[in-house]
Write a structure and sequence with these properties.
Layout lengths: L6 E5 L4 E8 L13 E7 L1 H11 L4 E3 L7 H12 L2 E2 L12 E8 L4 E7 L13 H5 L1 E7 L3 H13 L4 E4 L8 H7 L2 E5 H8 L4 H8 L6 E5 L5 E4 L6 E3 L12 H14 L4 H15 L12 H9 L2
Amino acid sequence: MNDNNTFDVLGMGCVAVDEILRIPKWPEQDTKVRLTHYDRQCGGLTGNALVAASRFGANCAFAGHLGHDSNSDFVKNTFIKENINLDHVPWKTDSMPIHSFIIVDESNDTRTILFHLNGSTGAPADSPPESVILSSKVLFVDHYGIEGMIRSAKIARRAGIPVVADLERNEWQGFDELLSLVDHLIISIKFARKISGCSSPGAIAHKLFTPGKKVVVVTGGEEGCWYVEENRILKHFPAFKVKAIDTTGCGDVFHGVYSACLAAGLPIHERIRFASGAAAMKSLHPGAQKGAPTKDQVLEFLQTR
């Protein structure tokens, strides 16, 4: 763990602007349906994780691409409000966040995400400077901008800085190399089954616990999560029972709070406990970011469980 703590968590991957549309039930074809709620929030794998980590008390920074369009301004203003450092963002005219439309079906608490990637590049291939990466306690990566993620992860791993990942897609060249550089892998059971070829959580966790890994966490929503450390003993942490309203961003919040706890030096069980509690609390609110709780809110929630 790096003692130079300029940043607790540094991320440079996926950010988005989410248009959140809530409907009473999924409509039939060629019909109209009135929205029950509309909201606009900042989102994205890295964006949500950094906001969650910052609200939990971590000193966070974003160093991915942003542009000069209105959606980039929306992300910039959100990050400034959330105390996320933007000093190392490379601003490019042709860059912009992902733009997503999230349709939440209230009749069965499911979500459908429609998005486009026009102008989204993810992590820069040649920045931030190595000194910035070395000034962080935890490097957070996702699969947007594989080349830049690999570069940053190599720098971090050589310095003993933990690399936490939120990975959901593997069609890009270099994915396997990036996966091998991650030593704190937190992955949904659906995607984990795809890349491991295994079905049970235990088999998945052990298959993905490749050389260099410190922790593999397989998340299963309301079934909780399973994790293994270097002793290879599989452990299960049950999900907190709540009446979920919207699960959008729950996994991202889990990743962000886990990263904040890792930067703070907490043991694995506490990282999982806080991350699980924060994810459960987020599910009580619509959208990915507005429901991300503060550390005090998580502590209060856990005291009642």
